[in-house]
Amino acid sequence: MDGTRTVLDIKEYPDSEVQKNRVLTLEEWQEKWVTGKTVFHQEQGHQLLKKHLDAFLKGESGLKVFFPLCGKAVEMKWFADRGHSVVGVEISELGIREFFTEQNLSYSEEPIIEIPGAKVFKSSSGNISLYCCNIFDLPRTNIGKFDRIWDRGALVAVNPGDRKRYVDIMLSLTRKGFHYLLAVLSYDPTKHAGPPFFVSDAEVKRLFDSVCNIRCLEKVDALEERHKSWGIDYLVETLYLFTEK
Question: What is known about its subunit structure (predicted)?
Answer without folding.
Answer: Monomer.
